[in-house]
Give the backbone structure.
Amino acid sequence: MTRPVTRIVGIDLASVPARTGVVTLSLSGPRVQATLAEGADDVSLVAAVDEATVVGLDAPLGWPDDFVAALGAHAAFHAWPAVDPSITRPERERLRLRTTDRFVRDLELGVTPLSVSSDLIGVVAMRAASLQSAWASAWGQREPRDGRGRLVETYPAAALRAWGVLASRGVRYKGGGGPDALAQQRQERQRITEEIESGCAPWLVVEAAVREAADRSDHALDALVCALVALATVLGATKVPPRADREVARREGWIHVPKTSFSRLGELLATR
């Protein structure tokens, strides 16, 4: 990075702006201020980025290498790899799941990322790809997708599990449903937000608008988590790709999962 990081934008990306959450962290010495960003359309998301900004994005940054190769073979009228009976299940799985998806699954956090090649999240990935191109102009270059630069792929559910905040008792903080389910989900979001604030005290200050938005919508809460994961990545406090996976992570993307506590982030921030 050519400039020190002074701002982090956490984005819970969806296919449309109405379901996209955006939270900004402003870094000032050992203190961090979380504010609610205005505008979640592509124009606003591009305008929010400059050379001193790191983006934490809840969206796949790429597609599985094997899937991309299979599409190329199909376009050239060659055989689709999965029809070969000699191909084993793990090999077929690599058409669906990226290296980072399998890595997160194997962490045994109880969550598995959606398949960017076979689930509806592919629409979100296409929006993310467009934003990557637009942000490249603000950054002066295309950033690698492994989190070593100004672009960090996040997965809030895995991060919350790694931080010990997400309940494993079957209570969900999103998902919709009837009035009772919605009320329960809102209570769970309030609990998660409170645990994040108490765990990050005193170094993190969350403005009331962020807290209120998180109460109303999981998109705002997830955006706050995205921003905190990106901060952890900047501080070297997330799980990075193993050496053997570094090159593929640059293309496919890499989900950064925290490996230290909230309090440890504050210590790292104070010595940054």
In short: The radius of gyration is 19 Å. The chain has one domain: 7-62+121-270.
